[in-house]
Amino acid sequence: MRNLKLILAYDGSDFCGWQVQPDAVSVQGTLASAIGRITGEKVLPQGSGRTDAGVHALAQVATFQTESVIPAANLLTALNDILPASIRVVEASEAPADFHARKSAKAKTYRYRMYREAICPPFLSRYVWHYPYPLDFDAMAAAAPLIEGEHDFTSFAAVDQEKGAPVISNVRTIFSSAWRRDADELVYEVRGNGFLHHMVRNLVGTFLLVGKGALKSSDTAGILQAKNRATAGATAPANGLCLVNVEY
């Protein structure tokens, strides 16, 4: 039995998310079907995390076990011939037997893009949150680092946690959290050892309130301490979010 590691890029716009769901098209299910057509095996690849409906990935990692003798390089070509254009396998390799896409992960990086001009180009609209209204960027930039470190992120977790994903603790460690300007966009990038359901989008929604002046930068610490979802901002739209890196 071989353990294979895939690195995937996908446009999440047309999927219900990574995880297989009844009567819905998922990235995981689409990939599993393609693997099955090639190997003749019924497998369910495991991802590094469960991206939500509409969320994209530049480097999602997936692992699965197979008895197939097809070389990894040939499998990559065959998968990309079958998969829709919205999913690409960018790398396929052999992995140690104990390597697991999710359990072995040490850190992940997510990026959120907010487009600031009055008119959003149609070819960008699937990948950014179009928000052309006034914001205090400096206040948002000051708030972002305040979540760094080990904290209980209950205030930024979805009230309805993912089905089938029991949460032992809402404590996570954030290694870096920062906003930057990039041409016509404000870009938020966050790196941590793990993320709760909707956590990054809820952080962005909260930083937006800071930018609008509804909250102060310093309020971020109090929201963390409250451990109450009602104290934080609304969930930002999914299409601005992308998983950009997973570290092992």
Q: Which features would summarize this protein structure in a list?
A:
248 residues; 2 domains; 21% helix; 10-stranded mixed beta sheet; Alpha-Beta Plaits
Shape: globular
The DSSP helix count reads 5
Helix percentage: 10-25%
User: From the 3D coordinates, which CATH architecture of the largest domain would you assign?
Assistant: 2-Layer Sandwich
Under CATH, the topology of the largest domain can be stated as Alpha-Beta Plaits
Strand content: 25-35%
Instruction: Please give the radius of gyration in angstroms.
Output: 19 Å
Summarize the structure.
With 248 residues, the protein is α+β, with helices and mostly antiparallel strands.
Walkthrough of the structure:
This protein is α+β, with helices and mostly antiparallel strands and 248 residues long. The chain has two domains: 2-95, Pseudouridine synthase I, catalytic domain, N-terminal subdomain (Alpha-Beta Plaits); 107-247, Pseudouridine synthase I, catalytic domain, C-terminal subdomain (Alpha-Beta Plaits), CATH 3.30.70.660. It has five helices and ten strands; from the N terminus they run βαββαβββαβββααβ. The protein has helices spanning 27-39, 72-82, 137-143, 199-212, 219-226; strands at residues 2-10, 46-47, 56-66, 87-95, 107-115, 129-130, 149-152, 171-182, 185-192, 241-247. Strands 1, 2, 3, 4, 5, 6, 7, 8, 9 and 10 form a ten-stranded mixed beta sheet that branches. The two termini are 22 Å apart.
